[in-house]
Automatic annotation (TrEMBL):
This is BTB domain-containing protein. Residues 20-78 form the BTB domain. PROSITE patterns: BTB (PS50097). It holds the Pfam family BTB. It comes from Caenorhabditis nigoni. InterPro entries: BTB/POZ_dom, SKP1/BTB/POZ_sf.
């Protein structure tokens, strides 16, 4: 019986090749990765693969407390076969990029969110939460008219914003109306 070629994007992005030298296991599923690539992009993986931890010499390293699809999508953003984010997973990927110390992935996600059609208040909330300056500024710049500010104060997104972001929004209101 011949083996079927992989068609799943995750299988394709993380198949075993002559360039992979480690296996990460998430929820019992395997991702074949390159230690040097991960170490270059992440201090977390640099420490994991090159410090005196038992994982350094293990043939398979288990990653706990994360969903397989999210973790694979996260790591794929530094490979030649990226699995692009979407509205549903972008925020989870930002959380994972912080957890696994992947600043280059944060940049990719910020660009994705900035160019998305996500509503401006949601962009502001995410920009505020993850300290994504470009996303925050882009969302603030979308507040142009009186009607853009109406009712914003009563939303859960607004209530969760930091004081500094609320101040920037207030400044935007004052600047727009020459008060």
């Amino acid at each position: 019986m011949t083996k079927r070629p992989a068609t799943d994007p995750i299988e394709l992005a993380f198949a075993e090749t002559d360039k992979t030298d480690a296996i990460l296991v998430i929820d019992g599923k395997k991702l074949h990765v390159n230690k040097a690539l991960l170490s270059y992009h992440s201090d977390y993986f640099k420490t994991l693969f090159h410090s005196d931890f038992k994982e350094k010499s293990m043939p398979e390293i288990e990653i706990k407390d994360t969903k397989f699809e999210d973790f694979a999508a996260l790591l794929s953003l530094i490979t030649v076969s990226p699995i692009w984010p979407n509205y549903e997973n972008a925020e989870r990927l930002l959380e994972l990029s912080d957890r696994f110390l992947l600043p280059s992935v944060r940049c990719v996600l910020e660009i994705y969110l900035s160019s998305s059609s996500m509503n401006k208040l949601e962009k502001m909330r995410i920009g505020d939460k993850f300290k994504l300056e470009k996303l925050l500024k882009d969302s603030l710049s979308q507040y142009r008219q009186n009607s853009d500010f109406r009712g914003i104060r009563n939303t859960s997104e607004f209530k969760g914003l930091s004081d500094s972001t609320k101040l920037m929004l207030f400044d935007r209101l004052m600047t727009n109306h020459n008060i």
